[in-house]
Design a protein that fits this description.
Immunoglobulin-like; six-stranded mixed β-sheet; 2 helices; 42 strands; mainly beta; single chain
């Protein structure tokens, strides 16, 4: 093979082979020179080292960046760990809060609440606030100057408590409440640890039991009464010691079916509330009488709630007493009516007819029944007493009916009913001497008994009885008087007798007298006829008089009028002036100055609406002695 062809083959194959690295190539020149042969190797080595150095130079920057980042993250985690470790140095259990007091007291006894707080942690406590929630019925006696009072709690703004520092607060007062009641005093502590932004709270409480109240109470009621029978309730009370210094408010909760009639003493408010201002160790009592109705064998419960009223008008419950009465079906029953009504209010001078009804409720005949009635009143005229089929015993002050006058009473058959009666008149004049003489009434108690009624062992014999009370209405008396010449406070003018076409003025006096009871919302009303003119001149110190010129209505809003006004106190009066200008059709006639006048009001004692009417007033002026009846007629 020729040398040329051989070279072409070699070169052709080398083209398809990968090119060797530069430092592995051997130049064709000087193929057997050792120095020349090593030179390319040294060059290639340097080039390789340079490239490696460049490569490592780029990677070192990246490594430094990575190492720096890892270090920074590590420092953040270390700082967070150290922060958390610092935060964990506060434990709320290291803050102590306690409250202590007596465990048992007598109601009204003085007590001291001691509040103890301590900071056993390693950090300061900031914005410390102590709140004491006092128990119900607690009345604070004294407090520190920093103590601010609210409705039912007190607050100390403490501020800061250093580590290992302790604080003590005290509150004194007294606790009032029912016997055996438990009173809780609670305290709350709010604060911010110096290494926290959050607010923490601790609470504590203490309990005390009221083992006794400083009152002796005894509520008494009958064990049993017949339906619609008379009952007497009595509450006895006294103070055990000087702890009971507050006024007492006693409220009775009457059983359903009870109608109160008499009270001793009279209630302070409504018909069931008494305010007792002074309480001593001597026994006092409240007596209430009335009728009780209900179904046979029904239990009726009376409750008396006793509360303390302190100087701040706060009402705190002391005790609650209750008593039971059973509705019993008695062999005999009795009930009454006056002038045909069970509840009746009378007037002075009025005649009262009492009807006493009775019935045998047993299943056997009852022999020799006796009925008695006893009147309790100083305002009836005993001389007018009329008893039908019975007699009056002056020694016993009783009206008595027996079989002698009422044969049916000899033997009352099972289910038999009947009635007896009497009449008596209220006095014309009531015995009024001073302001306390008011609220008059007539009370009658009727009873029925028979020797055949059995008496259970250990129980007093129950005699059927019934009480009825007749209240006397107050009497509103209105005087309507007209004058031409009176006391001169308002001067009149014009001709007397009145002349046609000329103006004559008159003064009208309204005067109120009130007998027996206080009366509220008193109003006097009348109308001026069309020919009468209102002059506007009045004697009306309290501005109670009103006139409507469109309707001619005159109204005096007199308000409340006390009992016995005009008898033991001055008459209540108002005066106003009117005038007339007669016309020809009124010649030789009396001219009406005022139409009929009406006075109204509500009786506070009987709760009756009262009304009195007075006839019209004319120019004859019967109350003015200077004007004759003849001079009241119109002339030309």
């Amino acid at each position: 093979m020729a040398l040329k062809e051989f070279k072409q083959k070699i070169y052709k194959k080398e083209k398809v082979r990968e090119e060797k690295p530069e430092f592995l190539k051997v130049p064709l020149e000087h193929p057997f020179d050792e120095q020349s042969q090593n030179a390319p190797m040294e060059k290639a080595k340097k080039t390789f080292i340079k490239k490696i150095a460049d490569l490592f130079s780029t990677r070192r920057s990246k490594i430094i960046l990575i190492v720096s980042t890892i270090s920074l993250v590590g420092l953040i985690f270390l700082a967070a760990f150290m922060y958390q470790k610092g935060q964990a140095s506060f434990d709320i259990e290291d803050v102590v809060l306690e409250i202590k007091s007596s465990e048992e007291i007598i109601s009204g006894e003085e007590i001291i609440y001691s509040i103890y707080c301590a900071n056993n942690s390693k950090v300061d406590l900031k914005n410390v606030e102590i709140t004491f929630h006092h128990p119900e019925g607690f009345i604070s006696k004294e407090s520190e100057p920093s103590l601010s009072e609210e409705t039912n709690f007190k607050i100390w703004q403490v501020g800061e408590i250093k580590p290992k520092e302790r604080k003590v607060f005290e509150i004194s007062g007294k606790v009032i409440g029912e016997k055996s009641s438990i009173k809780y005093g609670r305290v709350k502590m709010r604060f911010n640890p110096s290494n926290f932004s959050s607010t923490f709270e601790k609470t504590a409480e203490t309990a005390l039991t009221i083992i006794e109240i400083p009152l002796i109470l005894n509520l008494v009621s009958p064990k049993s009464v017949p339906n619609e029978g008379m009952v007497d309730y009595v509450l006895e009370y006294s103070a055990k010691n000087d702890l009971c210094s507050e006024n007492l408010k006693i409220t009775f909760e009457y059983p359903e079916g009870f109608t109160p009639i008499n009270f001793n003493p009279q209630p302070t408010e409504s018909n069931n509330i008494w305010i007792i201002e002074e309480i001593s160790e001597e026994t006092d009592k409240i007596e209430i009488s009335g009728t009780l109705s209900g179904k046979e064998n029904e239990i009726k419960i009376l409750k008396a709630v006793i509360e303390a009223v302190n100087e701040n008008k706060t009402i705190i419950k002391y005790a609650e007493e209750s008593s039971e009465t059973k509705i019993a079906q008695l062999p005999l029953s009795i009930w009454q009516a006056v002038n045909g009504k069970v509840n009746y209010n009378a007037e002075c001078s009025e005649e009262l007819e009492f009807i006493v009804n009775y019935k045998n409720n047993s299943d056997i005949g009852l022999r020799k029944a006796i009925i008695t009635s006893e009147i309790f009143s100083e305002i009836v005229d005993m001389a007018t007493l009329k008893v039908y089929n019975g007699t009056y015993n002056d020694d016993k002050k009783q009206i008595i009916w027996t079989a002698a006058g009422v044969p049916e009473l000899g033997v009352l058959e099972p289910g038999e009913t009947g009635s007896v009666s009497f009449k008596i008149k209220v006095k014309d004049r009531l015995p009024i001497d001073d302001f306390s003489d008011k609220n008059f009434s007539v009370k009658n108690i009727s009873k029925i008994d028979s020797p055949d009624i059995p008496t259970p062992t250990g129980v007093n014999k129950i005699i059927a009885s019934n009480e009825i009370l007749v209240k006397i209405n107050s009497r509103l008396v209105l005087s309507v008087k007209g004058y031409y010449n009176d006391d001169g406070r308002i001067k009149n003018s014009g001709p007397i007798p009145p002349k046609i076409g000329e103006t004559t003025s008159y003064t009208i006096h309204w005067q109120i007298l009130n007998l027996a009871n206080d009366v509220q919302n008193v109003e006097i009303k009348s109308v001026l006829p069309n020919w009468v003119a209102w002059t506007g001149k009045t004697i009306d110190q309290n501005k109670e008089l009103q006139y409507d010129e469109r309707t001619g209505v005159v109204i005096w809003q007199a308000g409340n009028i006390s009992a016995n006004t005009g008898i033991v106190s001055p008459i209540k009066e108002i005066v106003f002036q009117v005038n007339i200008k007669p016309i020809i059709t009124q010649k030789d006639m009396l001219v009406r100055l005022l139409e009929e006048t009406t006075i109204t009001g509500k009786d506070n004692f009987t709760e009756e609406n009262l009304e009195t009417k007075v006839s019209p007033l004319s120019t004859d002026l019967p109350d003015d002695p200077s004007v004759s009846e003849k001079e009241g007629k119109v002339v030309e």
